[in-house]
Structure formats: C-alpha cells, structure tokens
Write a structure and sequence with these properties.
This protein has two domains: about 100 residues, Orthogonal Bundle (Arc Repressor Mutant, subunit A), CATH 1.10.10; about 180 residues, Vaccinia Virus protein VP39 (Rossmann fold, 3-Layer(aba) Sandwich), CATH 3.40.50. It is about 50% helix and about 15% strand. Strands 1, 2, 3, 4, 5, 6, 7 and 8 form an eight-stranded mixed β-sheet that branches. It is globular. The structure holds S-adenosylmethionine. S-adenosylmethionine binds next to α9 and α11. InterPro entries: COMT-like (IPR016461), COMT_C (IPR001077), COMT_dimerisation (IPR012967), SAM-dependent_MTases_sf (IPR029063), WH-like_DNA-bd_sf (IPR036388), WH_DNA-bd_sf (IPR036390). One of its GO terms (biological process) is methylation.
Length: about 325
C-alpha cells in the first residue's frame, strides 16, 4: 500500500480522496430528496403555480409541527438559498438528534472526540503530499499558530521547516489529548474567540467553514491582536486558510459535487456552509482587507493566503 502510494502523485491521491468523499456522502442526496417529499415540497411548488418561491414563503407553507420542521427544513433549505445565506441560526439537526451541539457533544463523549480527532489527523496527513509545493508560503516564518489544529498538520510543517516554531492551539479538552511535543512543536489549550497566541502566521485548516461571517471576522481580529502585540513582527503576519472554495467548474463536476455534500454536512452539523470565492471575499472585505490569494492545492480544499497584516493593522489603527 505504501509503495503504491509513492507511485501515485499528490494530484491523483487528492482526486481519489474527492472520489471517496463523494461516495461516502452521496447518501445525503437521497436523504434530502426523501425529506423534500415528506415535507410535501413538490406539492407546495405545484400549488405555487411554478412561480419563484422565497424561503420564508416555503417555510410558512409547510404543514409540519416545529420539532420535525427544524430537522427537515434544515435539510431542504439549501435548495432554496437565494444568496448563499439561507441557513440562518436554527437548532441544527445534529443538536435535535443528540441534544448537544457538535463541540459540546465531543467534549462529553471522549470516544467520539478521539475518533473525530483521528479522522481530522488522517485528513491532515494528506498535507505531506503538497507541503513541498507550499514552501514559499511558509519560508521565512519564525513562528506559526495552527488555530483549531489537531497536531497532524503542524507536525508535518515542523519537520519540513525546522526553524519555524509551531504552536497547535485548540480547545482545552482537545489540547489535553495532544501527542508529544518536540523542539519546535508545542500545544496550547484555549478559546480562539478570547485569545490566540502570538506568531508570524496563523493557520486555519477546516475551521472557518463551521462559523458565520461575523464570527470569522472576530477570529481574524484576534489574529490581528496576536500579531500586533509583537511589534517586531508587524508586516510579516498572515493568515493561511485551508478550506473549501466552491467554484462549480463544469469540468470538475465530481469535485464540485463532493464540495456541495460538505456544504450540506456543515449545515446539518453546524448550521453553517461552505463558501464560494465571493463569500470568502466578503469576510476579508468586512475585516477591511481586499488582498487575498486562492490556490487550489489540496483536492477538495484550497489554500487562501490573506496578507500582509500591516495593511489590516493600518485599517484598525485607531
Ligand atoms: C474541523 S476541526 C479541524 C481540525 C484541524 N484543523 C484539521 O484540519 O485537522 C475544527 C477544530 O477547531 C477546534 N475549535 C473549535 N472551536 C474552537 C475554539 N473556540 N478555539 C480553539 N479551537 C476550536 C475544534 O476542537 C476542532 O479540532
């Protein structure tokens, strides 16, 4: 298996990963079709005379009682998102099923927490395939905080860039399970909405897709505070975001489909969504910054560089 892995290039392996994800999550299509039928959505559309229907109009036409509605409407709402902001803040189907939100559920169920951590770590192992192509992004950085990291990605980075001090920052109960530290790799527990340790750069892998725009801006502001507290680093700071960018290229239909399944998954688990480039840009603009660069490096995921922080600092200088 290992020798086969080396025969294949990163591109093929990321394609294979997208293919697998698509099949793993393809049950979502039939689930939301079932939900739509059970909710009577085809009849509602028919009764509406085939006219455009808004999400509130659709919801008020549904005949189900609220608890059932919450779970079903969340599944179906994505069909009717008019501007990519249709999810709203509702109890998530995950919460209806488990009585706790995703993070609290993880905190109270160590077995699940470990399993989720392992899944994330194995996903991050794929970074091994491309980290050499990313050299210019990390070269010259003295320190990096992997915000919401589980250690796997940072371990790869710390080996590839031995002069860069890597700090994995995650919630206390996650950091408590952290593997061994090394010379240039350590783990800190905390809440990114309250504090982010100081560094030259901040990595966010699969973090922002679980949050609404307002929260993403709050997190970026915490990065700004972390960089500004070290005046000698001003101008060097940047955010490196690894997440899905939905771009719907016709020739990448399978990739887009897999990305849209993740979009559904985020809605069920967090009431959030995957973003297209315009939606990412909106966050950066809200943060007062228009310069960003998107590189589709990781199969389903892209790497978005937002830099330099000096410009951001100037915007918030008052
Ligand atoms: C989808 S996982 C991504 C993990 C890792 N970055 C990766 O890609 O392998 C999101 C992570 O963010 C962490 N997280 C969520 N809220 C956080 C907070 N307020 N402060 C720090 N970490 C947080 C979670 O514990 C979880 O490990």
């Amino acid at each position: 298996m290992d020798s086969k892995r080396h025969e294949l290039g990163g591109r093929e392996l990321f394609q294979a990963q997208s293919h697998l994800y698509k099949h793993i999550f393809s049950y979502i299509s039939s689930m939301y079709l079932k939900c739509a039928v059970e909710l009577g959505i085809p009849d509602i559309l028919h009764d509406h005379g085939g006219q455009h229907i808004t999400l509130p109009e659709l919801v008020s036409a549904l005949k189900y009682n609220p608890p059932k509605l919450v779970a079903y409407a969340a599944y179906c709402a994505c069909w009717f998102r008019e501007d990519g902001h249709g999810h709203g803040h509702i109890t998530t189907p995950f919460e209806s099923a488990h009585g706790l939100n995703f993070l609290d559920y993880g905190e109270q169920n160590p077995e699940f927490n470990t399993l989720f951590g392992q899944a994330m770590a194995s996903d991050s192992q794929m970074a091994n395939l491309v980290v050499k192509d990313c050299k210019p992004i990390f070269d010259g950085l003295n320190s990096l905080v992997d915000v919401g990291g589980t250690g796997s990605f940072s371990r790869i980075l710390s080996k590839e860039f031995p002069h860069m001090k890597c700090t994995v920052f995650n919630l206390l109960h996650v950091a408590a399970n952290s593997p061994d530290t090394t010379n240039n790799l350590n783990f800190i527990g905390g809440n990114m909405f309250q504090y982010i340790p100081s560094a030259d750069a901040f990595l966010f892998k699969l973090v922002f897709h679980a949050y609404g725009d307002e929260d993403c801006v709050k997190i970026l502001k915490k990065c700004r505070e972390a960089i500004s507290s070290k005046s000698d680093n001003q101008g060097e700071g940047k955010a490196i975001i690894i997440d899905i960018v939905i771009d719907e290229k016709e020739y990448e239909q399978e990739l887009t489909e897999a990305k849209l399944f993740f979009d559904m998954l985020m809605m069920v688990v967090e009431s959030e969504r995957e973003r297209n480039e315009k939606e990412w840009e909106k966050i950066f603009l809200e943060f007062g910054f228009s310069h960003y660069k998107i590189t589709p490096l990781f199969g389903l995921r892209s790497l978005i560089e937002v830099s330099p922080y000096t410009e951001i600092l100037n915007c918030y200088a008052s």
